[in-house]
Write a structure and sequence with these properties.
The complex is a heterodimer of chains A (250) and B (498). Chain A is 52% helix and 11% strand. With 250 residues, chain A is α/β, with parallel strands linked by helices. Chain A has two domains: 122 residues, no CATH class; 107 residues, Rossmann fold, CATH 3.40.50. In chain A, helix 11 crosses helix 12. Chain A is globular and about 55 Å long. Chain B starts with 10 loop residues before the first helix and ends in a 9-residue tail after the last helix. Chain B has 23 helices and twelve strands. Chain B has 498 residues and is α/β, with parallel strands linked by helices. In chain B, strands 1-10-7-4-2-3 form a six-stranded parallel beta sheet, sandwiched between helices. Chain B has a four-stranded mixed beta sheet with strand order 8-5-6-9. Chain B has a two-stranded antiparallel ribbon with strand order 11-12. The relative contact order of chain B is 0.12. The chains are: A alpha/beta (250), B alpha/beta (498). At the A-B interface, helix 1, helix 2, helix 3, helix 4 and helix 5 of A face helix 1, helix 15, helix 18, helix 19 and helix 20 of B. The complex binds iron/sulfur cluster.
Chain lengths: 250, 498
């Protein structure tokens, strides 16, 4: 099985520990992981802000970078959803504009092999007990892309429930958006901030030591809000929890 | 669009004001969460909801594809049943037609059934200019009208008001419009409803002209349908001598069999009821029963332009249930007024910029009034992919492109005020398409990491007013990989300059 990690630009630059956790988790499960350096950004920030044409080279690059791999695994629900939902749309619009089928082909190649991390674990590797150990109370925020676009359903919870030492705390209003939304956070800062404040209030009410998601972009906003509030609740990517073992809690 | 909507600030500024109004936020939070939970229960009762939703979507799409055909069928059927059909290309024409029709009756007063189309065209204001008083008879619309306010929700126009505010409005305002509020009126819902009933009754009994919209128009028989909860609609549709209905052209459905699907989808999605308390249907005129004269004003006002857009046209499937407003986290905090249109919330954010265009700062800001969380799409009974249309309209704002306006193909220019963002997106595109440059940037950031503030100066304050930045790590993932694995795997080499 040729598996590549698509680390995403945010993780590459700001959260390399999440990428390292995915590598150590997958290797522990017997998967050989590749990292083609040609990879970059999936184009989500540009696309969702309306810059479709600026997104196109990045979609082509994505397909090219992972051409030699059977599976592409990414620790980001929103980037996986970008590839799955929007790459085909890039192709359709380019074709309608009479600009050929290159983007449609890129989408056809990229979409079926792209998996968000918890999807890959549960659907492809068919594991829910990854042998992890994490002696903390944790609450799980499902993120909008994970919940509604990818339809991750119970996968992340099933994985978390099998982690030894981990106590999962229910989050009130879990399905509500945290208020990040990419450039929404800076274009509508006031609304984003009150959404973030409601989310972090619910997180603090759980009494958990850590809040975990399948996406560091939401954690950038949630963690940044918690930090500003002086909260001790730690933002943690689910990959870091699943990569933790008795000898090495991340 | 209504004159009251002109000169509105762009969405972010208006929404920011609403977030500081703690009473408004509390009212909205309570109301939207209550309706949203009830809707979820009502929808959960039906095991075939997914099929109904797919059917609703398919019927609307098919009808919109052949809209010209069904509208002609409808016109024939309405005319054959004794009604008169008028076509209005835009708001001004619709207002002129209705004003002329009311004048022809010699009346100076009309009673109104709650209607989005007449809100959209600003009919009440147009009638007032012609010296005609239009009385809203839906309880929430009455509250809005008496309070000299604007509606903030499709279904519950006074959702931003709580009971004590409503009592105060009734006490101070009812007297100048007709029968005053009873002495000692409290804020108990039953007393408030009774005060409204007494106030409205004299209007119903006196009115000679009724004005309505319609939820659906059945092409095969020319039948119009209004669903409602209070019974005021039934009074306005049956008591006056003349009935004038202003209806958007997208409200037509081909047959009664099609209607059946929507009469299941709509009540559960909007009021969380299994069926509406009042479903009024009328076909032209009937001797000795109901209005003697019936006029149907078919309203375009940007709808055929919208229909020309293959992505955006799905907004015309909307049945105005308001489920998307009730689940929207942005609507809940911003309130309906911030959207500056009769259509607030997610549907407003995709409909208004299509009906009105994206030329004004407000209309250009509406497609961005969303975190793209997808809750609206999930609940929409006709499966409008609102996030998809939002992103499509964002593209129209920043990149411009071909659109149809006023029936003419035109090319619109990118909106002003996005120059810095466009430059940033281009720069990001340049860097992300050159991983070598990306790596150089990451290394520079890592070397200077101790100098980085956790709060940003200048335009970055939009982020760091309420959020800290995470510390920049000492080593990017790419560098870690290269250092630890690069050599042995042959993966992860530096890419040559390009
Ligand atoms: S867009 Fe969908 S959910 Fe929103 S009001 Fe229209 S039909 Fe209802």
């Amino acid at each position: 099985m040729r598996v590549a990690l698509f680390v995403t630009c945010i993780n590459d630059t700001l959260y390399p520990r999440t990428g390292r956790a995915v590598v150590s988790l997958l290797e522990r499960l017997g998967v050989e992981v590749g990292f083609p350096a040609e990879q970059s950004c999936c184009g989500q920030p540009q696309f969702n802000t309306g810059y479709r044409h600026a997104t196109e080279p990045l979609a082509l690059r994505y397909a090219r970078a992972f051409r030699d791999y059977e599976y592409v695994v990414t620790p980001s629900g929103s980037c996986a959803a970008m590839v799955r939902d929007n790459y085909p749309r890039l192709g359709q619009k380019a074709a309608a504009e009479g600009r050929g089928g290159a983007l449609t082909e890129a989408a056809a190649e990229a979409v079926p092999k792209t998996y968000e991390l918890t999807e890959f674990l549960v659907d492809v590797l068919k594991v829910t007990d990854v042998g992890a150990y994490y002696p903390h109370t944790v609450t799980y925020h499902p993120t909008c892309h994970g919940l509604r676009m990818l339809g991750l359903g119970d996968r992340p919870r099933a994985l978390l429930q099998h982690v030894k030492g981990l106590e999962l705390r229910e989050l009130a209003g879990a399905e509500e958006c945290c208020g990040f939304g990419g450039t929404f956070a800076v274009k509508n800062p006031a609304v984003s901030a009150v959404m973030g404040a409601d989310k972090t209030r619910h997180i603090q009410e759980t009494g958990a030591e850590a809040v975990c998601t399948v996406d560091n972009s939401c954690l950038l906003h949630i963690g940044g809000t918690l930090s500003r509030q002086g909260s001790t609740v730690r933002p943690v990517h689910i990959a870091e929890i699943l990569a933790s073992t008795e000898g090495n809690v991340l | 669009m209504s004159v009251t909507d002109l000169g509105m600030p762009a969405f972010p500024a208006a929404a920011a004001r609403s977030t500081r109004d703690t009473r408004l936020r509390a009212n909205l939070r309570y109301a939207t969460h209550t309706i949203r939970d009830k809707r979820a229960r009502a929808v959960g009762e039906l095991s075939d909801w997914a099929q109904l939703r797919a059917a609703g979507r398919a019927i609307k799409d098919r009808t919109l594809r052949h809209l010209d055909h069904y509208l002609e069928r409808l016109e024939e059927a309405v005319t054959a049943a004794g009604g008169q059909v008028h076509w209005a290309a835009d708001a001004a024409e619709a207002n002129r037609i209705v004003t002329r029709l009311v004048r022809a009756t010699g009346e100076r007063e009309v009673v109104k059934v709650k209607s989005m189309a007449t809100q959209e065209i600003g009919l009440n204001e147009a009638l007032a200019e012609a010296g005609i008083s239009a009385y809203e008879t839906d309880l929430a619309e009455l509250i809005v009208q008496l309070g000299k306010d604007r509606p903030s929700h499709i279904l519950v126009p006074a959702i931003h008001r709580n009971r004590s505010e409503i009592r105060d409005i009734f006490r101070t305002e009812m007297g100048s419009w007709g029968r005053p509020a009873p002495d000692g009126l409290s804020d108990r819902p039953t007393e408030l409803a009774e005060a409204a009933r007494l106030h409205l009754r004299e209007k119903f009994l006196r009115a000679k002209v009724g004005i309505s919209g319609a939820n659906f128009m059945v092409a095969e028989t020319g039948t119009l349908v209004v669903v409602e909860s209070e019974g005021n609609g039934r009074m306005c549709l049956t008591l006056p001598e003349t009935l004038i209905s202003v209806v958007g052209i997208e409200k037509v459905v081909p047959t009664w069999q099609d209607l059946e699907v929507f009469l299941q989808l709509l009540p559960r999605s909007s009021t969380a009821e299994r069926m509406n308390p009042y479903t009024s249907m009328w076909t032209g005129t009937t001797d000795g029963d109901g209005p003697r004269t019936f006029h149907l004003v078919l309203l375009d006002n940007g709808r055929t332009d919208t229909l020309a857009d293959t992505v955006g046209r799905q907004a015309l499937r909307c049945i105005r249930c308001s489920a998307c407003l009730n689940v929207c986290p942005v609507y809940e905090r911003a309130g309906g007024h911030a959207y500056g249109s009769a259509y607030p919330g997610p549907i407003g954010a995709i409909l208004t910029p299509q009906l009105r265009g994206t030329a004004s700062a407000l209309d250009a800001s509406l497609p961005y009034a969303s975190s793209l969380c997808g809750a609206c799409y999930e609940v929409c009974p006709v499966a409008i992919d609102i996030p998809e249309v939002l992103v499509h309209l964002r593209e129209r704002v920043v990149e411009g492109g071909k659109v149809v306006r006023g029936g003419m193909r035109t090319v619109i220019q990118p909106a002003k005020g996005h120059a810095a963002e466009r430059a940033a997106m281009r720069a990001a595109g340049f860097v992300f398409d050159r991983p070598g440059v990306l790596r150089a940037g990451q290394r520079l950031a890592a070397r200077t990491r101790r100098l980085h503030p956790r709060r940003l100066p200048g335009p970055g304050h939009a982020w760091s007013d309420t959020r800290d930045l995470p510390p920049v790590p000492a080593e990017s993932f790419r560098d870690w990989w290269q250092r630890t694995r690069g050599a042995e795997r042959g993966d992860g080499r530096e890419e040559g300059a390009k």
